[in-house]
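Hi support team,

I submitted a single chain yesterday and got back a structure, but I'm not sure I'm reading the token output correctly. Could someone confirm the output below corresponds to the sequence I sent? I've pasted both exactly as they appear in my results page.

Thanks,
R.
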Amino acid sequence: MSDDFDLFGFLEGRTFPEDSVKVYTDEKVAYSARDLINEYKELSEVKNPTTAQKSRLKEIEKEREEIRAKAEETAVRFHLRGVPNHVIKELTDDDTKGIDFLRLIGAVVVATESPDGKRTDVSYSRADVERLRDLLPAPSFSRLHASVLELVVASAAFEEGADAGFFPNS
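Hi R., thanks for writing in. Yes, this is the structure output for that exact sequence:
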């Protein structure tokens, strides 16, 4: 038996960061929440609120819980897993040196979860992600996109931290 270190075997067994992101699909609920948030913020900044203003703040808190419950009924969770460098390289356009972000999202999203907790493993094509982009509310797709990018750069941030002394290099 050899005591040699198998670098390639070691690297093939490495793990990747995982995360999930919840997005909401009911734009009407989101819009009503926006108005409520603005009213709450405005009233909570009043230095000496009247009894009516205090009462309205309590009403808003109750309405906020109702809106939160409605929003949760339309929430979809995307489960994400980082990808190895060779996948990112495959998604890079040789002419522009830019990454095809729709294909990257397809590579990183590994499962979806319905509002009632049913999880389905997925493998999205670029066309699937284009359809997602068209069907999801724009802020929800943007949140998914940002979460994918954050996950993909997590490894780079770790390496920078290790080099900066967070984990002293030996």
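A quick pointer for reading it: The chain has one domain: 17-162. Let us know if anything else looks off.

Best,
Support desk
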